[in-house]
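Bench log, entry 3. Co-assembly request; chain sequences pasted below exactly as received.
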Amino acid sequence: MPEARLFGVAGIFGEPCRLLEAVARLKASGWERLQAYTPYPVRGLEGALDVKRSPLAGTVLAMALAGTALAWLMQWWMNGVDYPTVVGGKDPRSWQALVPIMFEVMVLFSCLTAALGMLFLFNRLPRFGHPVLEAGLGRFTTRDKFALVVEAGAAAFDAEAARRALREAGAETLMNIPVPAPAFVGLRGLLRLAAAGGALAAAGGAGMYWLIKLWPVLPPMSHMLVQPRLDAQMSSAFFADGRGMRPPAEGSVARGRLAEALVSSRTAAGLAAPLPVTPAVLMAGRRAFERTCVVCHGPVADGTSLLTPAYGAVPANLQARKFLAYSDGMIYERILRGHNAMPGYAWALDDDRRWAVVRYLRALQRAQHAKESDLP
Amino acid sequence: MNKRDIAAAAAILGAFGAGACYLGPGPERFWINWLVWTLMLLSAGLGALFLTGVEHLSGARWSVPLRRCAERVSDLVVPGSAALLAALLSLPVLYPWARPGGAPRLAPELRAAWLNVPFFSLRTAVCAGLWLLCWRILAGGSRRQDRSRDPALTLRARRWAAVYMAVLGFSLLFVAYDWIVSLEPEWYSDVIGVYLFAGAFLSGVAASSLVVARLLRAGRLPGVRFDHVYSLGAWLFAFTVFWSYIAFAQYLLMWYANLPEEVFWYKQRTQGPWQAAALALAALHFLIPFFALLPVDAKGDLPGLRRCALIVLAAQFLDLYWLIFPAVCPRPVFSWPEACFALLFMGAAALWLRRSLGRDADMPVGDPFLKDGLEFRL
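Structure output for the full assembly:
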């Protein structure tokens, strides 16, 4: 029976030093295309086989440094420049705080580089098989044996001579490594593979879904979720009286709320508008008026409300004679406190805006009651 | 004039200088130098003993041919312990808690329970006693084995190695808290004992590497190959990273927390006049040895390893100097007293090591695993 076409011949050795000797002997007698397979790195083997130094170590170092630099740059930019956050009174650009992340990213980059390098440089992805594996040499070389393979190569190969040389070099066992028949994955096979993969993914997804459904009490990190907190309209455990916040001390006035605290309907009438009549003030007043008052009092403040009758109350016609006679301070006080059916708008307008609205309302009243002398 | 005479001359010159330092610049300068160099000797000695201990305990074979070198370095435990006991005289000079009215912010309970001269001296004496005991059993037993070839001594060493691990762990913690931290008793750090251990082990490995390099070049370690040297270099490399990790962890935590009772210590040592020392420490203790030992072949390259070992020892000295000196010196000082102390202690250590270099075998010839060790391959 003719021998199947050979990829090479393997000699199997029991000791790493035997393997090294065999490499030296075969090299000396002119054999080329030698490959060794060992369960762990054997020192000196690269030198004996003239294997070039792999570029992987240098690449990993470069990527590690790049990762470190990138992590530094990222944190420096995000934390120090783009959105500076002061934590614990530290300068947002302090290098100390960046070190842990730099370290982690360094590790991540080096591991990924090493793993990808292993897959692509050493395992030669996208190659999925190798004659040596098909022949079952791995049974020995992944345990306690060391193999030396004389590869056939393209030129005429004298398998018998190779076997003899290996035996003379001390191989315990010899093994032929045939060129495997080309594996062919047909369309049907691919479809089956895809179906199996899809089914697996679906089963995994469904499994996860039901797992979470059935055992929902597995919050991954609950310590921020489960803590005393303040809910609207609920009593809280923060203080003995059940409130979540302390009420302000008696007689205290919040920042910017002095006017509300001081103005009363009696004192208001005498207040004078502190703002001058300038286009800027009038424009600010107009903006605030249109945003806050127009819905009820209408665009020219004549009480033509944009509201439906469901509102129930009738907003005052501010063009009425009565209101023309109001002093600035009285209108100001109505904005602040409201009047009967009209709520106060102190919360919506700061003090400058309130006076600006007063100025604008006065301008509206004058426009609606323009006299000949008002024309330019 | 041979090397032995040079060492003797250096030690004698240094001794005169040290004496002059006591009389001239004063006892404080004398004792602070004494303390740094005592801890330096103890670091190398205890670290080397740890190396032999950890190898006994793990049943390592590769290290058997090199073990005698580490055992010789561990002989430094003897002068180191003696110097530490002598340093008890420094308590009222250096330590504020030992002076009447010193360290006023110290809690009186702490003073009564821990920081008082009798208990302090007792702790130190117990530590020194335990070190000497372990040294006699581990390093001395190995030498006895040279003659008796008794394998039972190997078993005994393995059991005592476990004891020594625990002894070293606790005693270095005491040394760190008592002799280093209590110079500024307001300060504390949980990890300072580990920090001191990392530095000590590193200097033990480095000093052993120096002895190995010397004997190898003299052809006195037949059969020791790249594989053995490489493994020693790997220890040095690994613990360079370990020290840096611990040192930076301690710094980062204190820097972040910014507690006044912790951070003043680092502020003094990383800003202002001591900043240069801190930066030099980062370079000598981490950057240079790390990158020098990073390539595969560098760990087994004898001249390179020797250079790294020297750098690491210098770094350990700088580390102790940087830990201890700022407690009394607001800015770094290095003048003739420091130089004389260096001469004194290095000369004395060299003499002490030479004594054993001439006396017993260069390898533990009685160890049943010596053959295994010599056959070791990576």
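Chain A is about 45% helix and 5% strand. The mean pLDDT of chain A is 88.
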